[in-house]
Amino acid sequence: MSVHAPLTVTNGQLLLADGTITNGALRCEGGFITAIGADVSPAEGDHVHDARGQLIAPGLVDLGVFAIDKPAFHFGGITRAGLMPDQNPPLDVPARVRFAAQSGKPDLWVHPLAAATQGLEGTALAEIALMRDAGARAVATGRRWIGDSGTMLRLLQYTGMLGMVVITHPEDAGIVGKAVATAGEMATRLGLPSAPAGAEALAIARDIALAEMTGAAIHFRKVTTAKGLDLVRGAKDRGLKVTAGVTPAYFMLSDLALAGFRTFAHLSPPLRSEDDRKAVIAAIGDGTIDVIGSGHDPRGPEDKRLPFADSAPGMAGAETLLPHTMNLVRDGVISLARAFELLAANPAKLLGVNAGRLEVGAEADIAVIAPDRPWIVDSGKMAALAGNTPFDRQPVQGRVAALFKGGVTLLDK
Amino acid sequence: MPMASSSMTAPEYTYPEGALAFPHRSLVGIAGLAPHEIWFLLDEAEQWVELNRGTQKRRDLLSGLTIINAFFENSTRTLLSFEIAGKRLGADVVNMAVATSSVKKGETLIDTAMTLNAMRADAIVIRHASSGAVHLISDLVDCPVLNAGDGQHEHPTQALLDALTIRQAKRAFNGLRVVICGDILHSRVARSNILSLASLGAEVRVCAPPALLPADIERMNVKVFHDFDAALKGADVVMMLRLQLERMEGQFIPSPREYRHLYGLTLDRLAKAEPDALVMHPGPMNRGIEIDSNVADLVGRSQITTQVEMGVAMRMACLEVLTRKGRGVEGWA
């Protein structure tokens, strides 16, 4: 990084780490933020970027993506991505973790999430400590729940000792089976294999109990139901190391989006009822939810142009993560500062990386954002590897105007 | 409900002229059909019931047309019924046998559909194990598509032939109490029948143990029962569903014998329904499990073979109506 000239981003609205927004500039040197505030001005020889009064915010830290998709991440202002272990083959040995950790540098930092169990099968523990030392920042159960409570208990004891958070997918596998939809009128009318939404609360209840027994930290990657969120809220009140995340699909859409067997709305966990959608918004507002991620999973026609139950779950979400979260700001659910806690500071904290906030000494991951700039999502023209978005043709607001990683320009429009 | 149903009589019997009577390119499901459109198809089927009862069972309306029966899931009676229907109308009917086809070699559903389309079929009849498969194909091909059953979603021609059977015996649907008993959860026949019968004005009751009922089924305008005897009280039609033994394995019900104990249609149980209640079953039956032989064979009451007969006529009507535009029939082209 040191070969690059220092960068100064001037004339913007700085979103500071304490949540205040102030006019000023920010200077980066050697990949780190070295000065920030109203009185900062570029030094001789600096590369200067004029933010033209737009928001200067931390680059987004996207926890729980399924693919390394740089164009989509950069479009969406994402400078760091926590990569799910559900790769082919899975990230369950140190060599694959090390490779994944290097794969995005320098313009995207990939933080691999180590598979909790070998082959993500949920039975035998994977080499977690070796993977940690190879660059894994956290442990994940993948898109599956560990059904055996004894295995989960021993996993949490082990990760508690190692000081790593376990990112789990809370859906009781016995209830879910081969379900691709949430039980309800829509699934019934479409004749889709479905499971009751309560499968989530059941899994969360058990995992909270195990987290309490072990004192280990646990993060529920997506909590999407009112009952599940209530359990997380209760656990937090009791002071447990429990955190929760969600993706915009669960506060933007309900299972009504499945009408016409639209496979782009086939997600895991499946889209929920309208009441659960509203509960997710309330939980973002009251602080029960800590992280909003994209769950980015680009899937081409070979995975999506199939009958609904035969299609792969997942959506390309990196490009719409920021605008959909900005919706919550415009609707008064959260403040702008809180939005960036959910998008950057909190996931950075979970991953234990020195980013996600604008302060002196932090790594220089910077996004210049036009929070209200309108654009239209077009699945045919997305930057992502595939355009599988359930938001095709929908107008959104909020766009990244420039992006810097380690003080180096990645995007400038 | 009874108040509203009497006012629903009128539109059933009148429908617009020409293509407006059935303005759909394909028959993907009962969902989306207006009551008068269902009624129109039933009326169209009557002439084919007559024809099929005569000795000259062929009328070459579809001569020169190619109909492909693409059954991705095993079937005997539905496939045969569609094949006979097409042939009696003079069409060239081809059956695609999935067991020996390239589907087994990993070809995707879309590629198979595009292949059939490129062979310039005039109608494609599809059965597939996944809900929504027919919907997917109908969006991609240039000809009418008929759903012969997709997963647990719909089986519209079965519902139409059941409605035709009931109409022939009962003349009308308003206020008619129809019980559908069995594995509602996994049944596309139940879903299509619920939609068509409720749309035609009947009171539909579904009866099954909770594990075999889909969530929020009452939102589909049905009354839910777990007690078969209670459901049968005052019933005019008793429609039994096949218990898919291979699907049970103790997961949904403990044993076939226990199922019969609670949900088997015996003569004693049938006595709880109206004295002239019809007995129906889409087949194939598990005699002695969901239905006793002496009920299935009850002369005057059991409609099970009539259903098969109506099936051919109903499918002839569907094929004939859906190909009208392609054949340039006046008022439809």
UniProtKB/TrEMBL annotation, chain A:
Q: Does the keyword DNA repair apply?
A: no
Q: Which residues are in the Amidohydrolase-related domain?
A: 267-408
Can you name the source organism? Novosphingobium clariflavum
Q: Could you list this entry's UniProt keywords, alphabetically sorted.
A: Pyrimidine biosynthesis
Name by which UniProt lists this protein:
Dihydroorotase family protein
Q: Where does the Dihydroorotase catalytic domain lie?
A: 82-224
**Which InterPro entries does the UniProt entry name for this protein?**
Amidohydro-rel, DHOase, DHOase/Allantoinase_Hydrolase, DHOase_cat, Metal-dep_hydrolase_composite, Metal_Hydrolase
